[in-house]
Amino acid sequence: MDSNFFFKEATLRICGTLDLEKALFRTLEFLRPYLPAEKAFLHYYDPVSATSTVSASADNRGGQRHQAKTVWPEHWHRMAVNDQLPANIIINDADSHELARLMLKPFISDDKFSLLVVRLTVDGQWIGGVTLYAPGRDRFVEEHMRLFALLRDPFTIALSNSRRYQELLSHKELLADDKRYLEKELRRDYQGTIIGADSGLKPVMEKVNQVSHLDTPVLLLGETGVGKEIIANALHNGSPRRNGPFIKVNCGAIPDSLIDSELFGFEKGAFTGATARKRGRFERAHGGTLFLDEVGELPLNAQVRLLRVLQEKEIERIGGSESIPVDIRIIAATHRDLPLMIERGEFRQDLFFRLQVFPITIPPLRDRLADIPALAAHFLIKKSRELGISPPPALDNRALSILAQYKWPGNIRELENAVERASIISGKGPLCFDDLGLNSKTNAGVEPEQGGGEALHLDEVLRRHIVKILEATGGKVGGSDGAAELMGINESTLRHKMRKLAIPFGRKKH
Hints:
This protein is of the alpha/beta class. It is 42% helix and 16% strand.
């Protein structure tokens, strides 16, 4: 037998695939003319748990993958740890061999059988072995062992590579599962935090419902902190792209020198430090939505490239010449006055027309006073969870009146911060907001409540607030100067809240 030919042909079969069962079957088919083998087994050993696992087997029917674990007896484990087991072994009476019988019990039922075993090691560490089986005793001789031992290194490489490959697949599945879970949580969170969808944000949500199922570019307008990202998420989650990526770019947070590489990516060697190809945000958003927050902060050169993407639906990486098609929906947002920026030459007019196909203006919090109780309740629960305060504290009896008086220049983001600050200061006690720096004027003629340290739950706070508004309007719910108009909500919504809170209808009689 030509050893070189034997080694070459067997190695091609062993290392020709990452599927151990296929490799083992192909190798067994090749070995049969030279060795009396009818079955083959590949197993790896874990010294920590003292277990051996048959991971693949093969016979004349093909290869199979397994996870057949065997706990080694203590004396055998001790021999393995102390490296007292032979590198190659012929066991011509394997039916009477304790360890052999134990490991192959699920696969062999013969009363008498022989085994040929080669141990596999990496950097001096034993990782497993490969075993050939033949029915009956005294089936293998030294020449068989000489040939089979030639394959130690190919089998070691195959077992090691396969285990690493399986680990990568396992990690990939875990990451995919985590991604699905996080996307689900993200969608649920944003859907659950659109507070005021039936009151202060009702006109906004009507527009969202009109355009979410389309690929039309949307421009979200509004002051800082009004919740533009939440509305962008609502647009994405209501679209056919909901299962695709939602990629956010804060255009104001990326230095001008890096904006092109962040948006469009770069090729290896495009500039100093570009040691590998990098995909930009546009490529990462392929099949989904790209949210350009604070788009008014984009430098002019990036505006030109963005305009091309909107027109051509393709990009080029920095340092590359290949045009890469991208299938994305653009949602942009800004708090800046883009028409004024166009007059000053700071923003391209043609890009503005591309982005503002469907503009949506999100009102500031001072125009959504009726949403403050629900927003405060949401942030109170959220911050209590983050700060480890359980149960969430109640509100001081003056809290809602104070919140309703404040002008909220920082909008919802400022309200969230105010609730967090009050939660830290008050701990488990009733929350008050005496540090907001209010002026003496009140909204809708509602004066803050005086005295009384009573802590109120949110439903009671909301009930008292509505009652005071009704008192200011003489009990008028709808129409001009009615409570619904003053609170900035739909009349039917207010009546629903009144019924829920057991607030009687009807105007005051004089």
